[in-house]
Amino acid sequence: MIKIIVSNDVRLGILCQHRSGHTAFEQHLSATHGTALLQELDLNLQHAEVEEYLQNLPKDCIFSMMPRENSGELMEKYNNIDWKILLRKDVRKQCLSFVYTNKTQVFTNKQEKIVDVDVDLIDYFFINYKIIQEIVRKNKYEIFYYEELDLGNAYHTLTNNNYEELIANIELVNARIGKYLG
Predict the structure, then answer these.
(1) Which residue in 117, 135, 143, 146 has the most C-beta neighbors within 10 A?
(2) What confidence tier does 30 reach under pLDDT thresholds 50, 70, 90?
(3) 182-to-106, 166, 168 alpha-carbon distances in Å
(4) CA distances from 98 to 51, 123, 175 (A)
(5) Single pTM value for the model
(6) DSSP string covering 3-51
């Protein structure tokens, strides 16, 4: 397991996708290092609001940023932030979790409800996945995989939901994911 060390007076930005484990990652880092945990940089903010958020970060803070078209440019511009990238090795399971939790709006508990999910959300998921992969290819930022991290101080952990059984329209979902992952 990988352990993360955060230095004092750092602004730590985590580029990640939903269902990547970023909440547990941030909770663990905050609890371990006594660093303030800030609200996620909201995808609904306009460009000026994003700039204001990033310009006014306090020292000793951790926050996450979901991918947006100009994520790479923002990360380069705000180089006073120690940017990290958090990924999941099992992208397929992450995508299943994303479409399922978007339907149920339950994010941290063991799930039992069988539902049809919005298959079009898979396209949205992979648009964001592609943005992060383009930044990863530049090889400028340290990358962490959720599955390799020791997050003993997090209070949210993997639920190990079996989305194959919880998603009623799983055949359609698998077919759409297959367009992206082969």
Answers:
(1) 117
(2) confident
(3) 29, 22, 22
(4) 27, 11, 16
(5) 0.86
(6) -----TT-EEEEE--TTSSHHHHHHHHHHHHT-EEPPPB-TTS-HHHHH
